[in-house]
Specification:
single chain; flat; mainly alpha
Length: 73
Amino acid sequence: MAANNISTLTYKRDRQDQKLALAATNRQNETPQRPYTLDANLLPTRYGINSNDADDIVDNPNTGGLVLGRPWT
């Protein structure tokens, strides 16, 4: 079990969101002069809400191609 308790969350979407939030905090602490904005909708795929079923994975259409630096703007 990790010290941040992310691995104990039931749903993959919740774990994904918590990992992104932790990464955002880490980025902000490393370079506080640069603002980071997290947009999880820029990810190629997202897990379904309150579901671990593979059928509930949401595929981002990535119109215009993948965004460099995603999910950070």
